[in-house]
Specification:
Shape: elongated
Structural class: alpha+beta
Helix content: 40-55%
Strand content: 15-25%
Largest sheet: 4 strands, antiparallel
Length: 187
């Protein structure tokens, strides 16, 4: 190859222009498919990782709580063995706890089943006095009196006494708001 002659001595030769870069084509459907599959896989992996992290955190919390309870029980058992006064107080507390632990569901079921025209709003137990205070609304006075009289043969509660009743209008209908006091035989 022969170089062109230079017109002036000491002048730089012209820089050749070479293009080694191939022109890029737009990605095809296979590229987009691979990108979508990769994105879905990355999202699924991240979601699984997050779920696993949450489960591990919950298990750690449960483990800490169980270890704390076991330590408290161990310390209490040591103290109970060492201190007879503490042992006596713990026995009294256990007995009271057993007395307060009741099966509430049968009581609530019995209170609800007695009146078909009565809606109960609240039940306030007073175990110290053995009294239940029930507040609610009845369709009319006859429904209220029938509800109160139905406790004559009840097993868990009895001796009904209507403390207060008041005629009210609710949604265009007249109802009787009441407060009923019952002796609680389970207390």
């Amino acid at each position: 190859m022969k170089l062109p002659s230079m017109a002036r001595p000491g002048a730089r030769p012209p820089t050749p222009e070479l293009d080694f870069v191939q022109r890029r084509h737009a990605p095809g459907w296979l590229g987009w498919l691979l990108l979508a599959v990769g994105a879905v896989t990355a999202f699924a992996s991240f979601d699984r990782w997050q779920t696993t992290e949450d489960e591990v955190a919950a298990l750690r919390d449960d483990n800490r709580r169980a270890a704390r309870k076991a330590e408290q029980a161990r310390v209490l058992a040591r103290r109970e063995q060492d201190d007879p006064a503490l042992r006596a107080r713990i026995d009294v507390a256990r007995k009271l706890s057993l007395q307060r632990a009741r099966e509430w569901q049968p009581l609530f079921a019995e209170l609800e089943a007695r009146g078909k025209d009565v809606a109960l709003l609240s039940v306030e137990p007073d175990a110290a006095r053995g009294v239940l205070r029930v507040t609610g609304e009845a369709r009319d006075l006859n429904a209220l009196f029938a509800y109160a009289e139905s406790f004559a043969d009840a097993q868990a509660v009895g001796a009904p006494r209507i403390e207060v009743f008041e005629l009210k209008e609710r949604d265009g209908l007249q109802v009787v708001a009441f407060s009923l006091r019952l002796q609680w035989r389970g207390a």
